[in-house]
Amino acid sequence: MTSITGQGYLDTLGSNTGKAPPSGTLDQNTFLTLMTTQLKTQDPFDPVDNTQMVAQMAQFSQVSGIAEINKSLKTMATDLASARIGNVATWIGKAALVGSSTATPLADGSYAFEANLPEDATNVQIDLVDASGAVVHSTNLGAQKAGAVGYNWEAKDADGKALATGPLKVLVSAYGASGAMKPTVSTWTMINGVQSPAAGGAAQLITPLGIVKPEEAQRLA
Predict the structure, then answer these.
(1) What is the 3-state secondary structure (H, E, C) of the chain?
(2) How far is CA 165 from CA 83, 104, 155, 198, in A?
(3) In terms of CB atoms within 10 Å, which end of the chain has fewer, N or C?
(4) What is the per-residue pLDDT for 199?
(5) Tens digits of per-residue pLDDT, 73-124?
(6) More confident residue, 125 or 194
(7) Between these two residues, 176 and 197, which has the higher pLDDT value?
(8) Domain 95-220 = CATH 2.30.39.10
(9) How far apart are the C-alpha atoms of 134 and 200, rounded to whole Å?
(10) Average pLDDT of the residues in 39-51
(11) Exposure on the CB side of residue 146, measured as CA atoms within 13 A
């Protein structure tokens, strides 16, 4: 912070050869230069009101302080965004459970998902359908209690050979005491990378399902 110790210092401001502020703006040096000129050219029999001058200086200092606070807040926001990227970067290579009815292969080629039943079911049927509409895997889980029902398919044939399949649609048919119900489905997907929007903001997860927000990950494995 600069201290003003006397009239001699103020006189030096009039010869300031530094870079001028942009047109239409007034920085602190320009303000002090104008004030010094005002003091030099004032009528000695009708001097400038000191109270008004002090009020002007206080107002300028307040505006300058707000500008510095805004600058500091922008810097903090940038630092926090970088920190968020660093935190979620540790998720790369893990699997996240997200709300989606599309399942993608995990690191070992298997498919895993959960069906959340709103009530006890007397019968639960699961079908995995490929992009052409063909059912590539089907199983019946029978009666299941209300809540999350997990399922994992290794995606292998009868000989244990891995099947080459892409994203699959998970269809869950469940029936309870009140008839057919509509379970909500969440699938496990791999986290392949992390990105941050060009305009800043929170980091996002890159998955085979597309871009996923960190808060949309229900669990990690």
Answers:
(1) CCCCCCHHHHHHHCCCCCCCCCCCCCCHHHHHHHHHHHHHHCECCECCCHHHHHHHHHHHHHHHHHHHHHHHHHHHHHHHHHHHHHHHHCCCCCEEEECCCEECCCCCCCEEEEEEECCCEEEEEEEEECCCCCEEEEEEEEEECCEEEEEEECCECCCCCECCCCCEEEEEEEEECCEEECCEEEEEEECCEEECCCCCCCCEEEECCEEECHHHCCEEC
(2) 37, 9, 8, 34
(3) N
(4) 56
(5) 665 555 454 445 457 788 899 999 999 999 999 999 999 999 999 999 999 9
(6) 125
(7) 176
(8) no
(9) 42
(10) 68
(11) 6
pLDDT at position 9 over 80: no
Q: Do residues 205 and 194 lie in contact, with contact meaning Cβ atoms separated by under 8 Å?
A: yes
Nearest Cα to Cα of residue 94 among 216, 220, 195:
220
Q: How many CB atoms lie within 10 A of CB 60?
A: 16
- The domain locations on the chain are 95-220
Q: Mean pLDDT across the chain, nearest whole number?
A: 79
